[in-house]
Design goal:
By secondary structure, the protein is of the alpha+beta class. About 30% of the residues lie in helices and about 25% in strands. It has 2 helices and 3 strands.
Amino acid sequence: MYALSVGSSVAARVLGVDDDFGTVEEGKVADLVVVKGNPLEDMKALLTSVAVVMQGGKVVRNDL
């Protein structure tokens, strides 16, 4: 959980862009990676089980 938060919300806060990035909230930029599986149980899911990628609110990859 710590590694995921450092790569998202903490990184956005450090870079000063947390008003627009870093968490999933209404009004923020929709850059998301959806994986099959639970990355909290198996971090390899982030590399091997990517199902959907959204950039700027648009789906750029959908393997579902």
